[in-house]
Design goal:
Elements (H helix, E strand, L loop, with lengths): L2 E7 L6 E8 L7 H6 L8 E6 L4 H9 L3 E5 L4 E2 L7 E2 L2 E4 L1
Parallel strand pairs: 2-3
Antiparallel strand pairs: 1-2, 3-7, 4-7, 5-6
């Protein structure tokens, strides 16, 4: 397997679908087609998250109609027991 696209219901927000797509670095040029082939449920909102420095994923999400709506500054711990946090981007359709 060189990539995947998947969705799940958001654990906190009702009627909100969370989408993810990931590919091996040599196959990001095919990620848009992979994401487009994913059947999504009817939902009020569809969200996706991506790291600030992960341009390939952001490009795929933007090309598929997502818009970057926020950067969640320092919200996600980078490793257990560390004070370092990452700042993921939030995308929505």
């Amino acid at each position: 397997m060189v990539g995947f696209a998947a969705w799940a219901w958001h654990p906190l927000w009702e009627d909100t679908c969370v989408v993810d797509v990931y590919c091996h670095p040599d196959y990001w040029d095919e990620a848009g087609e992979l994401l487009a082939s994913l059947p999504l449920p009817e939902a009020d909102r569809t969200l996706a998250y991506g790291e600030v420095d992960f341009g390939e994923k952001a490009g795929v999400l933007l090309a598929q109609g997502f818009k970057q709506t926020a950067v969640l500054e320092g919200r996600v711990p980078t490793k257990h027991g560390s004070n370092e946090n990452s700042s993921p981007r939030l995308f929505a359709t």
